[in-house]
Amino acid sequence: MNMLYAGRLLTGLCAGAATVLVPMYSAEIADPANRGTVGVYLDLSLTVGILMAYVVGGLSGPTALSAVCGVLSLLAAASFFFMPESPQFLVLKGRRAEAEDALRWLRTGSAAPTPKESERDRAARLTPLCAGGHRVDVSAELDSMTRLAVESEERERASGGVLGAVSGLCKEGSVSPTSRAVVLVVVLMALQQLSGIDAIIFFLQSIIKSDGSALGPMYSSIVVGSVQVAATLVAALLVERAGRRLLLGVSGSLMAASLAALLVYFLFHQELKVDLGAFSWLPVSCLSAFVFVYCIGFGPLPFLMMAEFLPLEARSWGCGLAACVNWSLMFVVVRLFNLCMNSIGEAATFGIFCAICILGTLFVLTLVPETQGKTPSEIRQHLQDREIHTVTRRMSTPGGLGVV
Questions:
Q1: Boundaries of each Major facilitator superfamily (MFS) profile domain copy (predicted)?
Q2: pLDDT for the residue numbered 386
Q3: Burial environment of residue 90 by CB neighbours within 10 A (0 to 12, 13 to 18, 19 or more)
């Protein structure tokens, strides 16, 4: 048992680190045109892993599942030896030449430079030929990264570093773009977990046992896991077409509708003792629908938007804070889920999750800006404009700060 606890502790630490580092790395290496699609891959890997756990664990047991997960983890770790460093990170550290090489490799896959490369050869290398014969100029993107790094360093010096930036979040009347970004990211992460998704996934077989599904717990879990993977693939296809905000709004509203249907089922089946044998398919259908719409919006997009909203100077500690909130709330919700199911019943428990999904949808539609196709500077400018609008409105109201 001690070995089980130790292994779970290590996997938990690694998973927590991955949810901080992978969104940052993905956002910094992705081409702006497909940043959203690349950002969804983290959630795709999670859903594939959950489905694999249902299949291998259900058919072969925990020993085989641990072995498969261990081998896949080793392969993933080995693959990082062949991946380039983030160009944005290299620029931030003043290593421009290495950033050029990394960016060129990411955009074109061309060969590395020779040790005694001339300036002319170096200039030619920045516009290499792709397989299709079109020239790709990475110098403009590199210059943009350089400007972003300079602006980030200036803001960090002005705020007094990390401690100054954190203390600035708590100043009354001061809502900087960084503060607004941190609040948006933390609330999105909180809403993701408070929707009840992980509690439902972890206790899926117990929920299905209680509703008497004809498929049985194991196969019902595999169905729901397959739905997760399919929905995440849909999200990857839609995120750069429909936009983040629309997907979040649709996801939140349909999650609430799925939970409302589940609430009604359990209200009649468990509380009012109505025979719903003819509707035994409904719980698995509602859970599948809930998981599907979660995976097209509130599943992958908070992690993607976390890296998009946070500026460079706040990205490391901001992502860490958001991930800490996410994992902490996951622990709380999972711990309280069984207690709520046993004390207030299934209907009331799913009713709470339904209400949170409704509030989350309203939050997205009223306060979360669209980030699709926008550069980091444009996203920050949008948050800055909202700050100016808020301050102006306060100053123009009776009893406000005075004359604009």
A1: 1-372
A2: 61
A3: buried
